Amino acid sequence: MELNTGIRQGCPLAPLLFMLAVEVLALAITQDPGLTGVMVPGSSSERHVFSAFVDDSTVFLQEVRQLPRVLDLVATFGKLSGLTVQPSKSQVIFLNTAVSVTSYEGIPVLRSGATTRYLGHQVGTGDLADANWAVRIRTVQRRLATATRLATSVTFRAQILNVILLPGILFTAAVFDTPAWADLELRNHQNPNSLESVVINGNKSAQSQSGTTIHAASSGRHWINLDSSGGESATH
Q: What Pfam family is a match, any one (predicted)?
Protein backbone atom coordinates (compact mmCIF):
# COMPACT_ATOMS: atom_id res chain seq x y z
CA MET A 1 0.00 0.00 0.00
CA GLU A 2 1.44 3.34 -1.05
CA LEU A 3 1.34 6.37 1.22
CA ASN A 4 0.28 9.44 -0.75
CA THR A 5 -0.92 11.98 1.80
CA GLY A 6 -1.15 12.68 5.50
CA ILE A 7 -4.10 13.86 7.55
CA ARG A 8 -5.43 17.37 7.88
CA GLN A 9 -4.00 19.31 10.81
CA GLY A 10 -6.49 19.37 13.68
CA CYS A 11 -8.31 16.26 12.53
CA PRO A 12 -9.98 14.68 15.62
CA LEU A 13 -9.02 11.22 14.35
CA ALA A 14 -5.31 12.08 14.34
CA PRO A 15 -4.53 11.00 17.95
CA LEU A 16 -6.37 7.70 17.55
CA LEU A 17 -4.71 6.92 14.23
CA PHE A 18 -1.32 7.78 15.69
CA MET A 19 -1.84 5.51 18.70
CA LEU A 20 -2.90 2.66 16.44
CA ALA A 21 0.24 3.11 14.36
CA VAL A 22 2.62 3.37 17.32
CA GLU A 23 1.07 0.31 18.96
CA VAL A 24 2.42 -1.76 16.07
CA LEU A 25 5.95 -0.55 16.80
CA ALA A 26 5.52 -1.13 20.53
CA LEU A 27 4.41 -4.72 20.00
CA ALA A 28 7.22 -5.39 17.53
CA ILE A 29 9.85 -4.22 20.02
CA THR A 30 8.42 -5.76 23.19
CA GLN A 31 7.76 -9.14 21.57
CA ASP A 32 11.10 -9.46 19.81
CA PRO A 33 13.01 -12.34 21.46
CA GLY A 34 16.34 -10.73 20.65
CA LEU A 35 15.70 -7.65 22.79
CA THR A 36 16.27 -7.80 26.54
CA GLY A 37 14.99 -4.90 28.59
CA VAL A 38 16.27 -3.63 31.92
CA MET A 39 15.16 -5.24 35.15
CA VAL A 40 12.28 -3.46 36.86
CA PRO A 41 13.37 -2.32 40.36
CA GLY A 42 11.84 -4.54 43.03
CA SER A 43 11.17 -7.39 40.62
CA SER A 44 13.22 -10.54 40.19
CA SER A 45 12.01 -11.38 36.70
CA GLU A 46 10.06 -8.53 35.06
CA ARG A 47 11.90 -6.48 32.47
CA HIS A 48 10.93 -3.21 30.80
CA VAL A 49 11.73 -2.69 27.12
CA PHE A 50 9.61 0.09 25.64
CA SER A 51 7.81 3.24 26.77
CA ALA A 52 5.88 5.71 24.65
CA PHE A 53 4.05 8.95 25.33
CA VAL A 54 2.50 10.27 22.12
CA ASP A 55 5.51 10.62 19.80
CA ASP A 56 8.18 10.44 22.52
CA SER A 57 9.41 6.86 22.72
CA THR A 58 12.15 5.24 24.79
CA VAL A 59 13.74 1.82 24.39
CA PHE A 60 15.46 0.19 27.38
CA LEU A 61 18.13 -2.37 26.48
CA GLN A 62 20.33 -4.51 28.68
CA GLU A 63 23.05 -4.59 26.03
CA VAL A 64 23.84 -1.85 23.53
CA ARG A 65 24.59 -4.41 20.82
CA GLN A 66 20.82 -4.95 20.62
CA LEU A 67 20.33 -1.40 19.32
CA PRO A 68 20.86 -2.28 15.61
CA ARG A 69 17.95 -4.71 15.87
CA VAL A 70 15.76 -1.94 17.27
CA LEU A 71 16.77 0.35 14.42
CA ASP A 72 15.86 -2.36 11.91
CA LEU A 73 12.39 -2.64 13.45
CA VAL A 74 12.00 1.12 13.42
CA ALA A 75 13.07 1.30 9.76
CA THR A 76 10.55 -1.38 8.78
CA PHE A 77 7.86 0.41 10.77
CA GLY A 78 8.72 3.65 8.96
CA LYS A 79 8.23 2.04 5.56
CA LEU A 80 4.78 0.84 6.59
CA SER A 81 3.58 3.93 8.42
CA GLY A 82 5.51 6.84 6.97
CA LEU A 83 6.77 7.70 10.48
CA THR A 84 10.53 7.93 10.82
CA VAL A 85 13.01 8.43 13.64
CA GLN A 86 15.43 11.34 13.39
CA PRO A 87 18.77 10.18 14.85
CA SER A 88 19.92 13.76 15.44
CA LYS A 89 16.94 14.30 17.76
CA SER A 90 17.49 11.02 19.60
CA GLN A 91 20.05 10.16 22.27
CA VAL A 92 21.68 7.08 23.70
CA ILE A 93 22.11 7.11 27.49
CA PHE A 94 24.56 4.53 28.82
CA LEU A 95 23.93 3.48 32.41
CA ASN A 96 27.57 2.38 32.42
CA THR A 97 29.17 5.77 33.04
CA ALA A 98 32.62 4.48 32.00
CA VAL A 99 31.57 4.52 28.33
CA SER A 100 33.25 7.40 26.50
CA VAL A 101 31.96 7.13 22.90
CA THR A 102 30.19 10.20 21.52
CA SER A 103 27.85 8.40 19.12
CA TYR A 104 26.54 4.91 18.49
CA GLU A 105 24.87 3.72 15.29
CA GLY A 106 24.66 7.35 14.21
CA ILE A 107 22.84 8.45 17.36
CA PRO A 108 24.50 10.97 19.72
CA VAL A 109 25.51 9.60 23.13
CA LEU A 110 24.74 11.67 26.21
CA ARG A 111 28.03 12.19 27.99
CA SER A 112 28.52 10.79 31.47
CA GLY A 113 27.26 13.13 34.18
CA ALA A 114 25.03 15.10 31.81
CA THR A 115 21.25 15.30 31.59
CA THR A 116 18.71 15.90 28.84
CA ARG A 117 15.04 16.87 28.84
CA TYR A 118 12.44 14.13 28.43
CA LEU A 119 8.72 14.51 29.15
CA GLY A 120 9.27 17.57 31.29
CA HIS A 121 12.06 16.10 33.41
CA GLN A 122 15.84 16.10 33.14
CA VAL A 123 17.08 12.52 32.75
CA GLY A 124 20.57 11.06 32.46
CA THR A 125 23.46 10.09 34.71
CA GLY A 126 24.03 13.44 36.38
CA ASP A 127 22.57 14.69 39.67
CA LEU A 128 18.94 14.57 38.63
CA ALA A 129 17.56 16.33 41.69
CA ASP A 130 19.88 19.31 41.26
CA ALA A 131 19.35 19.43 37.49
CA ASN A 132 15.56 19.34 37.70
CA TRP A 133 15.29 21.83 40.52
CA ALA A 134 17.69 24.22 38.77
CA VAL A 135 15.35 24.26 35.77
CA ARG A 136 12.31 24.67 38.01
CA ILE A 137 13.85 27.58 39.95
CA ARG A 138 14.70 29.39 36.71
CA THR A 139 11.10 28.97 35.59
CA VAL A 140 9.84 30.31 38.92
CA GLN A 141 12.09 33.37 38.62
CA ARG A 142 11.03 34.09 35.05
CA ARG A 143 7.30 33.71 35.66
CA LEU A 144 7.43 35.56 38.96
CA ALA A 145 8.98 38.52 37.16
CA THR A 146 6.25 38.39 34.51
CA ALA A 147 3.46 38.16 37.10
CA THR A 148 4.70 41.10 39.14
CA ARG A 149 5.13 43.20 36.01
CA LEU A 150 1.83 42.49 34.25
CA ALA A 151 -0.68 41.77 37.02
CA THR A 152 -2.77 44.76 38.08
CA SER A 153 -3.39 43.76 41.70
CA VAL A 154 -1.80 41.79 44.50
CA THR A 155 -4.66 39.30 44.46
CA PHE A 156 -4.31 38.74 40.72
CA ARG A 157 -0.56 38.20 41.07
CA ALA A 158 -1.09 35.61 43.77
CA GLN A 159 -3.69 33.81 41.71
CA ILE A 160 -1.38 33.76 38.68
CA LEU A 161 1.38 32.17 40.73
CA ASN A 162 -0.94 29.57 42.22
CA VAL A 163 -2.26 28.57 38.81
CA ILE A 164 1.00 28.68 36.86
CA LEU A 165 3.86 28.11 39.29
CA LEU A 166 2.56 25.74 41.92
CA PRO A 167 1.68 22.87 39.53
CA GLY A 168 5.21 22.98 38.16
CA ILE A 169 6.75 22.95 41.62
CA LEU A 170 4.59 20.00 42.66
CA PHE A 171 5.38 18.26 39.35
CA THR A 172 9.09 18.34 40.21
CA ALA A 173 8.63 17.63 43.92
CA ALA A 174 6.55 14.52 43.16
CA VAL A 175 9.60 12.84 41.62
CA PHE A 176 12.69 14.46 43.11
CA ASP A 177 13.59 15.30 46.70
CA THR A 178 14.16 19.00 47.24
CA PRO A 179 17.85 19.81 47.84
CA ALA A 180 18.62 22.29 50.60
CA TRP A 181 19.72 24.95 48.11
CA ALA A 182 16.47 24.63 46.13
CA ASP A 183 14.39 24.83 49.31
CA LEU A 184 16.27 28.01 50.23
CA GLU A 185 15.71 29.48 46.77
CA LEU A 186 11.97 28.85 46.98
CA ARG A 187 11.81 30.43 50.41
CA ASN A 188 13.82 33.43 49.22
CA HIS A 189 11.19 34.05 46.58
CA GLN A 190 8.55 34.09 49.30
CA ASN A 191 9.52 37.58 50.44
CA PRO A 192 7.88 40.99 50.62
CA ASN A 193 9.40 42.07 47.30
CA SER A 194 7.91 39.16 45.35
CA LEU A 195 4.23 39.92 45.78
CA GLU A 196 4.13 43.03 47.98
CA SER A 197 4.07 41.03 51.22
CA VAL A 198 1.55 38.51 49.90
CA VAL A 199 3.59 35.33 50.29
CA ILE A 200 4.63 34.23 53.76
CA ASN A 201 6.12 31.17 55.45
CA GLY A 202 5.04 29.17 58.47
CA ASN A 203 1.62 28.72 60.02
CA LYS A 204 0.78 32.36 60.67
CA SER A 205 -1.58 34.66 58.82
CA ALA A 206 -0.70 38.08 57.47
CA GLN A 207 -2.52 41.01 55.93
CA SER A 208 -1.12 42.94 52.99
CA GLN A 209 -1.46 46.66 52.45
CA SER A 210 -4.35 45.97 50.07
CA GLY A 211 -6.35 44.33 52.85
CA THR A 212 -6.03 40.82 51.45
CA THR A 213 -5.61 38.15 54.12
CA ILE A 214 -3.08 35.42 53.45
CA HIS A 215 -3.10 32.06 55.23
CA ALA A 216 0.05 30.00 54.90
CA ALA A 217 -0.27 26.24 54.59
CA SER A 218 0.14 24.39 57.87
CA SER A 219 2.14 21.55 56.31
CA GLY A 220 3.89 20.63 53.10
CA ARG A 221 5.23 23.07 50.52
CA HIS A 222 2.39 25.25 49.25
CA TRP A 223 2.89 28.52 47.48
CA ILE A 224 -0.13 30.57 48.49
CA ASN A 225 -3.53 30.01 50.04
CA LEU A 226 -5.15 33.34 49.42
CA ASP A 227 -8.54 34.34 50.83
CA SER A 228 -9.75 37.52 49.18
CA SER A 229 -12.34 39.85 50.61
CA GLY A 230 -14.86 38.31 48.23
CA GLY A 231 -14.44 34.92 49.84
CA GLU A 232 -12.52 33.39 46.94
CA SER A 233 -9.40 31.37 47.58
CA ALA A 234 -6.57 30.47 45.26
CA THR A 235 -6.20 26.73 44.71
CA HIS A 236 -3.08 24.98 45.90
A: RVT_1
